[in-house]
Amino acid sequence: MKDKVYKYEPFWGNWYVDSFIGEGSFGKVYKIKRTECGNVNYAALKIISIPKTENEIKQAYYDGMDERSASIYFKGIVDELYKEIDLMSQLKGSSNIVSYEDHMIKVCDNGIGYDVLIRMELLESLNEYFLHNPYQIKDIIRLGIDMCKALEMCQKINVIHRDIKPDNIFVSPYGDYKLGDFGIARKLEITNFGFSKKGTYTYMAPEVFKGESYDSRADLYSLGVLMYRFLNNNRIPFSPYVNRIITHGEKEIALQRRMSGEEIPMPEQAGEELGQVILKACAYEQHDRYQSPQEFRRELEKVSGLYAEQYGTTLQEPANSDIGETVLLSQNNPATGMNQNMQIGETVVLSELNPMDMQQGSSMGETVLLSQMTSDMQQNNSVGETVLLSQMQPLESENTAPIPEHSNNTYSKSGKFNAGTVLKNKKIMIAGIVAAVCVVGILTTGIITNSHQKKLESKIEKLEKELEGAKEKENERIAEEKKLSEQIVISKRNMGIKKLSTIENLSNAKELDISKNVITDIKELSQCKYLQVLYLNNNKVKDISPLAKITTLTSLDLGNNSISSVGALKNLTGLTSLGLENNQIKDITELSALAGITNLNLKGNKLKDIIALSKHTKLESLNISNNKVKDISIAVNLTGLKILHLENNQITDIKSLFELKNLTEVYLRGNKIPKGQIQKLKELNPNIYIEYK
Predict the structure, then answer these.
(1) Above 80 in pLDDT, residue 604?
(2) Which residue spans adopt a coiled-coil conformation according to this UniProt entry (predicted)?
(3) Would you list which residues are annotated within the binding site for ATP?
(4) CB under 8 Å to 323, separation ≥6 — which residues?
(5) How far apart are the C-alpha atoms of 151 and 308, rounded to whole Å?
(6) Cα distances (Å, whole numbers) of residue 544 to 310, 477, 675
């Protein structure tokens, strides 16, 4: 039987199937080609059928749907899939993300299902590439760096990939590693009938595995496990180090050990420095991992440098030039093609200068102050012209390149605004104008005219004002750097600490992890004026009043203590994440003021109502499981909710969830919810994952 993909030919006007590449859980992939003017172009075509089989349509009927409701259900899946395709289009152009090119959605002949066709750049899969190109340590470091760059792009548009694995990584003809399949597999997994979580657990972060709230750090964990596997004889953590096929039972045991928080051993082939970097990415607790892909990438780049020193090779381009240093150059020569009508003191920006125009001592990228007149200068050129030559690079020919636009800002090698460089440039510029005009003016005309003098004085006055402004910015920058240098990260987790007075430099802490100790008194925390992140979970704290003055806090974890009152938290309006699970809290009225919270965990307390949360419209993740809550009608106001845990309460009505369009996961076990309401929630939100048995 001929594959149904052929009935859609030609795709997008002039594309045809060349060959079949492979088939995954959610679709087939083909190599397609287009011939234009004798040139053949290739691309990859992924076709996803929703539903995948006729059996899924039958299952819809078995679940009480008719033809119309089944069609609406599957259309909802397609709509969600379209959102993910739109995200892919936003990421187009990144060198480390598979380039999306086009898509189309076709209604199946039966009028119920859909075929989604997506055209992407044609690349080799990572597994296939490594099969024919044995990898070295440096390749895995490069892989990690490239994936971090891809995740940095995701971060810019608030996307969590959540499915990082070799199947979703590809290699370009130029050796770049690219991340693909953004959310498509995940969306299709959670919309299968039965609403069960499927997919591989091999690279899954513990918080995702356990159904808890997660963020972009889950992607960093998955990337860490992926790198671990490649540097550990192709075996995941806790796999037996034997030269044989691992059994299913051994895989399950390895998974259980990892998900229980057991300390992961060093990957065998990584070496100490790289191994430590990978282990941090694979940390069980989210706050023990890298907090951003940028941080992970920087550590990998450091290891890449160490690798170069030890083995004589590097993954980074050499930095031979002193890019970023700026000095003023004043050169009047008709050969440069300057405007003949330029006036005294005018500043012109040129780029892409021929190196023959530069003095031998100049480093590429510097701008140097020269005052040079030639005897053959044309008469209309005004004396003392000032030309700023910046970011000079060697040309391949003698032709002068077009002059590009330049920014007025000066940036350091790190890419940040550097007022110090501006300060240096302004001083040199003022001196250059005075020197150039005076020397050249005297040599050529013997005098400086009044009009020229006024123009010069005006420019000098303007530059002096800019100099004062640059001084102020420089002083502000120095003060800010000093302030930042005083702030530190302190980690004293699980060290048997009883008294905070034993911790040095506590008052300068920006981030403090003192979880899993035996602390009862936290009065010393009141002096922490810079504190933004605090992990105080798993201690013996009852009184949290010292926290009342730490208004700089944005993330606070107080889980597993003996707290009964949350009144001290009412002024911490900067909080976005708050963990209060497994305490003795009955009343959360004071939390009503914390309307900026996006992540709130109240699991395992003594709550009977959640009325105080009625204005928390920014909440994305809420956990009130294991309480005594009956009424959740205020949930109708929580329009930003994505993840909701309601397990083991006394809830009998969930109609307030029907209008929550952003809800993707809801957990209802241990309640007595009418089946009709659960079915209604599924119909209204076909893409939601519901756990209720």
Answers:
(1) yes
(2) 453-484
(3) 46
(4) 364, 365, 391, 413
(5) 25
(6) 51, 36, 42
Could you name the CATH architecture of 126-186+199-309? Answer: Orthogonal Bundle (1.10)
Collect contacts of 651-656 with beta carbons under 8 A, ≥24 apart: 653/677, 654/678, 654/681, 656/632
pTM above threshold 0.90? no
SS3 content of the chain, % helix, strand, coil (to 5): 35, 15, 50
Q: Using 50, 70 and 90 to split pLDDT, how confident is the model at 24? A: low
> How wide is the angle at C-alpha 391 spanned by C-alphas 385 and 394, nearest 5°?
105
Q: pLDDT tens-digit profile of 39-59?
A: 888 998 988 888 877 777 777
Whether the predicted pLDDT of 354 surpasses 80: no
Output the known binding site.
46
- For domain 487-691, the CATH superfamily is Ribonuclease Inhibitor (3.80.10.10)
Closest CA to 652 of 670, 667, 637: 670
State the average pLDDT over residues 568-588: 94
Helix residue ranges per DSSP H, 260-410: 272-281, 293-311
**Spacing of C-alpha 523 from chain mean position:** 36
Instruction: Give the span between the Cα atoms of 557 and 551, in whole angstroms.
Output: 15
Contact 122, 44 (CB under 8 A): yes
Tokens coding 460:
């000098």
* Helix (H/G/I), strand (E/B), else coil: 203: coil
Q: Which residues pair with 513 in a beta bridge?
A: 491, 535
Return the half-sphere exposure (C-beta side, CA atoms, 13 A cut-off) of residue 669: 9
Residue with tokens 């003017």: 37
Query: CATH 1.10.510.10: which residues of the chain?
Result: 126-186+199-309
Q: How far apart are CA 571 and CA 667, in angstroms?
A: 31
Whole-angstrom CA distances from 478 to 372, 475, 628 are 37, 5, 54
Secondary element (H or E) of residue 623: strand 621-623
Confidence of residue 348 (pLDDT cuts 50, 70, 90): very low
